[in-house]
Amino acid sequence: MLGYYILIGGITLVSWLVSSTLKRKFEKYSKVQLRNGMSGAEIAEKMLADHGIRDVEVISTPGRLTDHYNPKNKTVNLSEAVYNQRNAAAAAVAAHECGHAVQHAQAYSWLQMRSSLVPVVSVSSGMSHWLIMGGLLLGAAAGVGIGWWAAAAGVVLMGFATLFSFITLPVEYDASNRALAWLKNKNMVSQEEYAGSEDALKWAARTYLVAAIGALATLLFWAIQIFGGSRD
Fold first, then answer.
1. pLDDT tens figures, 73-112
2. Would you name the residues annotated as active-site residues?
């Protein structure tokens, strides 16, 4: 178990460093005011209109870095700061979330795949650790009967969550690429503003990368503990 705690500690540290850097980047680029004077909400509405998307609503949501696209009710949810502010960071986030709306409208395969896994992951992510821990208590490490099967089921369920994390990567990177391409092609931002938007989105994407690596490392650790043990 010591190895597991060291692993989790290392992943947590890297995640904290990336998250802290992301926050600093957004604070920095929040000071780069847009020359066109548009708010995040206006940026989002224009990007949707330019892609012929008329059935998606742009709304404000409480909190910080709570921005997301909801495919169920077709809403681009922007945090209050992004919705109202007129800077490079707000433009980047607003355009990124609209990138997901464009993916949805164009039936982007990776987004469809991720959406199909949501119901499974919502259940499996909560159950996997309990099954693994319960199985270990019942003797899974020694390959004993029901304990081993319970722990093995937990690892399989954890595998779905890990798969979800990796499928999320192309979805997020593609949304950022769509956002940056639109910002540049439509001359929505200056060169300085574009550089800020690009840097902010790169660091945002790295949070998903760290999460995926962490999920894989945790999965491999438990898989070795369960399947690497000797069974009589």
1. 999 999 998 999 999 999 999 999 999 999 999 999 999 9
2. 97
